[in-house]
Write a sequence for this structure.
């Protein structure tokens, strides 16, 4: 492990978010890493969806995420608060079998955030 | 390794640490813990550097060693310029980052010298190689 890092990927590659509608719900699917460099973009993208939602549920699918750090967690908590303030349901989908979810349970956030195992379950509400 | 204090460097740091631990045949869950803790410490150094000077360098180094009982640990050091805590500046993140760090590693020591901060983290122990 020596030498300066010169193979740093651009942040657009580190995380992608796609959006689609399922009935009255918006579904945002996040792939890649939710971290210091990508957290702000996640926050603003979800915030836009919350504002467009007009009270209908917004589903944030994190099941394809590869890595979630404390800064990513902070963004999720902030988004959850924003959603509550807008009387909008923010439903977060995580795969409980993957290690990615460990920070959520370690920090006790599974009691705070509205978590679902699959997008179908989140749509059903 | 030496890196620029740029948030995008974090994913490369994580990959390097992961590969290093895989070569050492470290167990999977413990690798996740060490990668998470290193990510938290480096994130704090990066967040501090971004707030301050540009082109700050951050140094990350790791070494494995054996306890007296033969069990193995790694120690990972993260060093950067300036005085920073191993926790980001945002109040909410500060709480999560520090908790995560201490949950993932057995011990964390912060020292300051000559205007630089070093965080040394010792991992939980794992069984010796057969």
């Amino acid at each position: 492990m020596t030498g300066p890092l010169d193979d740093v990927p651009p942040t657009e590659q580190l995380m992608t978010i796609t959006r689609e509608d399922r009935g009255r719900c918006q579904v945002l699917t996040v792939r890649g890493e939710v971290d210091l460099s990508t957290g702000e973009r996640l926050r603003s993208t979800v915030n836009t969806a919350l504002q467009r939602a007009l009270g209908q549920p917004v589903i944030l699918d994190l099941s394809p995420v590869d890595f979630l750090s404390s800064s990513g967690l902070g963004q999720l908590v902030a988004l959850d608060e924003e959603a509550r303030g807008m009387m909008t349901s923010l439903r977060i989908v995580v795969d409980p079998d993957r290690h990615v979810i460990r920070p959520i349970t370690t920090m006790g956030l599974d009691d705070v955030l509205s978590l679902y195992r699959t997008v179908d379950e989140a749509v059903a509400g | 390794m030496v890196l620029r204090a740029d948030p995008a460097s974090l994913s490369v740091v994580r990959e390097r640490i992961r590969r290093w631990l895989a070569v050492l045949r470290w167990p999977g869950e413990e690798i996740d813990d060490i990668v998470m803790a290193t990510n938290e410490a480096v994130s704090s150094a990066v967040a501090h550097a971004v707030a301050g000077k540009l082109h700050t360098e951050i140094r990350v180094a790791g070494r494995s060693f054996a306890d007296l009982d033969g069990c193995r640990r790694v120690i990972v050091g993260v060093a950067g310029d300036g005085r920073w805590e191993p926790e980001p500046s945002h109040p909410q993140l500060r709480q999560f980052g520090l908790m995560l760090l201490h949950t993932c590693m057995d011990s964390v020591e912060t020292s300051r010298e000559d205007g630089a901060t070093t965080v040394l983290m010792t991992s939980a122990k794992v069984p010796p190689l057969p």
About this structure: Residues 28-51 of chain B form the longest helix (24 residues). The interface with chain A takes residues 1-4, 6-14, 16, 20, 28-29, 32, 36, 39-40, 43, 46-47, 60-62, 88, 90, 92-93, 96-97, 99-100, 103 of chain B (CB under 8 Å). Chain B has a mean pLDDT of 86. The radius of gyration of chain B is 14 Å.
